Each structure stands twice: as C-alpha cells, then as structure tokens.
C-alpha cells in the first residue's frame, strides 16, 4: 500500500524558513512527478510546485521566489523549502505523487506563520 507522509510543519515566525519533507513508502516504482499543494484556512487547495523524476521543476507564479522543491528518487522523498515565510503561507501543506493514471496524497502537515 502506497503511503505519503509529510513532516516538518510547525509554528514559525514571519521571516523564518521551513523545510517540509514527504516520504513515500510501499511503492516499488518512481513517481513520474511529485509535488506540493497547500490549503489556507477558508480557501481552496492550491498548487505550489511540482518536480518530475528527472528533476524538472515548476512553480505557481506566486511561489517562485520563496519556494524551492527538490526530491530524492532513491529514497522516494520530496522536499519543499520555504524561505521568508509570511502570514499568508499559513495552511496545510499536502504532498502528492503521480504514477501512470494514479495520484497519491499525504495527509498534510500544518504550517502556521506568526506575524
């Protein structure tokens, strides 16, 4: 059974940094793409960034300057570095992995930025 588990969230002051991690277990394949979404309180889930297996990255326009996605295919991990955190970055961050027509999702990790 494939599971994705996020970690690294927490309470951080505005201007600080966080590195979120997502570990995929139970898969015998390399996800063609992995990435992150986030959901702020009272808002829809929004796409943050994606990274393909060869390492090609894409970011939502508003995320390009402070967010950095990376992955380790050997360990089936994906990471999200967030710098210069702002109060509006508060929300639940979800990782996903795509393989063929299947998408797998984690349960999310809470990020709270205090101003």
Describe this structure in words.
It is a single chain. The protein has 115 residues and is an all-beta fold. The protein has no helices and eleven strands.
Radius of gyration: 13 Å
Task: Give the helices and strands as they follow along the chain.
Answer: EEEEEEEEEEE
Mean model confidence by pLDDT: 95
Estimated share of beta-strand residues: over 45%
Helix content: under 10%
Strand count, sense and barrel status of the largest sheet are:
7 strands, mixed
Count of alpha and pi helical runs: 0
Report the principal-axis shape: globular
- N- and C-termini, Cα separation: 40 Å
Q: How many β-strand stretches?
A: 11
* Classification by helices and strands: mainly beta
Residue runs with pLDDT of under 50 for 5 or more positions: none
Jot down its keywords.
single chain, 115 residues, mainly beta, 7-stranded mixed β-sheet, 4-stranded antiparallel β-sheet, 11 strands, 0% helix
Annotate the secondary structure layout.
Elements: E1 3-7, E2 10-13, E3 18-25, E4 33-39, E5 45-52, E6 57-59, E7 67-72, E8 77-82, E9 91-99, E10 102-105, E11 109-114
Parallel strand pairs: 2-11
Antiparallel strand pairs: 1-3, 3-8, 4-5, 4-9, 5-6, 7-8, 9-10, 9-11
